[in-house]
Sequence to fold (112 residues):
Amino acid sequence: MECTRCGACCVAPDIAALDKPLGLRCPHLTEDNLCGVYEQRPSVCRAYEADEVCRLIEAPTLEERVRKYLDLFGLAAEAEAVREQGCPSMRAARRLASGRPVEGVPPGNRRE
Fold:
């Protein structure tokens, strides 16, 4: 399958090589849903190939595609918690999910 350049793979999953949290837009994703560091992108991004998931999440908007992706993998609630907490990194989001303190996130804003 050929990539449709929809941008969902740059928003929905967490990307360890970029320390990008689940459900948050990659800082390198441009407004037109293209990679701003395409030539220097990490190997995980280079290796990604469009597949059946891309067909399953087809939708008119990036927001809808991301929601469908997260729902497909049962990650919607976790991604919403990450967004609500404003986690600056994947590491912080994972610490938050585990109940451990997250530097830069006030205790009252942590999921406990």
Q: What stands out?
A: Confidence is low (pLDDT under 50) at residues 105-112. The CA atoms of residues 98 and 112 lie 9 Å apart. Helices lie at 43-47, 52-56, 62-72, 76-85, 90-98. The radius of gyration is 14 Å.
